[in-house]
Amino acid sequence: MTEHDTKPHLTRDHLLELLRKMLLIRHFEEKCAELYSAQKIHGFLHLYIGEEAVAVGCMEALEEEDAVVATYREHGQALARGISPGAVMAEMYGKQEGCSGGRGGSMHIFDAETRFYGGNAIVGGGLPLAVGLALADKMQGRDRVTACFFGDGAVAEGEFHESLNLAALWDLPVLFICENNLYAMGTSLTLTESETDIHLKAASYGMESSQIDGMDVVAVEAAAREAVNAMRGGAGPHFLECRTYRFRAHSMFDAQLYRDKAEVEQWREKGPVVRFTNWLHASGNLHNGDLDAIEAEVAAEIDAAVEFAEAGTWEAPAQLTRGVYAEATTP
Amino acid sequence: MNGTAESTKTTTYRDAIRAAIRDALTRDERVFLMGEDVGHYGGCFAVSMGLLDEFGAERIRDTPLSESGFVGAGIGAAMGGMRPIVEVMTVNFSLLALDQIVNNAATLRHMSGGQFGVPIVIRMATGGGKQVAAQHSHSLEGWYAHIPGIKVLAPATLEDARGMLWTALEDPDPVLIFEHVLLYNMEGTLPPDAGPVDISRAAIRRPGKDVSLITYGGMLAKTMAAAEALSAEGIDAEVIDLRTLRPLDIETVLDSVTRTRRAVIIDEGWRSGSLSAEISARIMEQAFYDLDAPVSRVCSAEVPLPYPAHLEQAALPQTDDIVTAVRELFGENV
Lengths: 331, 334
What we know:
The complex is a heterodimer. By secondary structure, chain A is an alpha/beta fold. Chain A has 12 helices and 7 strands. The longest helix of chain A has 26 residues, at 12-37. The termini of chain A are far apart. Chain B is of the alpha/beta class. Chain B has helices at 13-27, 51-55, 67-79, 91-94, 98-105, 108-111, 141-144, 158-170, 220-232, 250-260, 275-287, 309-315, 319-329, and strands at residues 9-12, 31-35, 60-62, 83-90, 121-126, 151-153, 175-180, 187-190, 203-206, 211-215, 237-241, 244-246, 263-270, 296-300. In chain B, the strands form 3 sheets. Chain B has a 7-stranded mixed β-sheet, sandwiched between helices. Chain B has a 5-stranded mixed β-sheet with strand order 9-11-10-13-14, sandwiched between helices. Chain B has a two-stranded antiparallel ribbon with strand order 1-8. In chain B, helix 3 packs parallel to helix 5, helix 9 (220-232) packs across helix 13 and helix 10 (250-260) packs across helix 11. The A-B interface holds A 67, 98-104, 108, 110-112, 117-122, 125, 127-137, 139-140, 158-159, 162-163, 165-166, 169, 323-326, 329-331 and B 30, 32, 58, 63-64, 66, 68-82, 99-100, 103-104, 108-117, 148-149, 151, 171-173, 246-248.
């Protein structure tokens, strides 16, 4: 039986690993923005820049056999979960070497090996799926957790309420993680919710619920570990509202008319990478050359991912109608 | 019992479905039934009556009124290794779960590059004729048949009510089964060992040579009655029960039409953009030169179904409408 850590082990190695993962996501997303402008990536692209601590901190609490359901802003979760940057990049290029065979693109990252169930582009649409995955585990007697990421926008959808109710009613091992970045696309939370303390809504369904500083990767990891451990002990669903912020626009089409540049700057100054790096310096965990080494490693990984995607191949159009059903089926 | 073996027994469409569900629950521990009022109430149409006592609350699972939530949960559970039968009380309420069905169940295999499949069965009651008015009388199975990634079935006989469910459960892809509300009380006989049937072929319920009457589900009975009436007038109608609406067994339809050279499609959906329009288009595309007359359609009138009986019946396809449509194909003045 695996021993599940109740608290993060704040060893230097672990801390540097957290930093490395956040930097991998940060620079991967920056590269995606470049590649989008260079028209290598098309359609919708939703960047995770600023929110890295949430994915990285939460994934630390999960085991291999657990499941993850995420949204269309899921590159951070995908990388933190361990899907190879090459597979994710190739998917965004639309190459058949991509993790979803090139059929999904940026919003539909799926990976069976890491139990990564998307990549869901309908706001709120993944929550019932997470409930079902957890239901299957419970009915089959498997001690696994399903982590479900979604944003503050999803809280307004009926499926949010239906899913939380079902999870609490049936005592299902779902870890609901709300990435509250204060905006649902271009509309501020204050304009869309009568009650903006999202974690209170979850609490009203009778589940353990808390609000976390989503810019603090250690705090996120600690909260996620505590929740997951309680859930493995049979404590039912848990809800984490992670207060965070995205530094870039909603997508590549967004002119950001709905928020002040000053507000964005304020959040950047207390962003997850900046805060963590400063703390690592101050606490003596970051030695000379550490950061450079990590940055070099990450840069190399991302270059390799782009190379992999560039070298990838296009699926033959003759195969267009494959993959709709398990066996070829003419309508 | 006694020494003489019973070759068949009298039963109903409802009982046949219950037997199918019971059989599935017994055969495969991954199967469970989930939906509104399936347990303690015994099922809105009494299909699952008694099953809660027999199989318990884990496997006969009453849900809150959360169609999107529990259909989505069924999809997730199917991805997680279970074989759920999700009962949406009627197609009218399924609209609340349309996102989960169209954006998840139908797409997950394709979007994930084949990594994940959704072996879910969703059963729904469908159709009108009981004076329950506009919001409770839809026939939207034709809409669902529009969507790649799901399969759509319409059992019209006891044999199919009994046999389609298991085959659907074995299918690795999402299967929707539409049970017409007026069929639940239909009586007939079934062999006690009646078992799974195929879900890919249409069936010729009445062979004939003069006209192909193409229909499914709740309209089969009226179509058969029309065929009887027509035979008294010397017109020998062939009746095809589509059984599966997606994928359509167009081969059986085309084979029939090339023999009879005339076709009428009977569809309880509204005429515009209905499944009958699709079938008509395919016949035109693939058997144009075999036709002696344009393909004709008998569908519901373009009105939300009204409450009073005389108006509701005027809106729905009737046996007389089918007979009239056939006569018109032979140039008779009606």
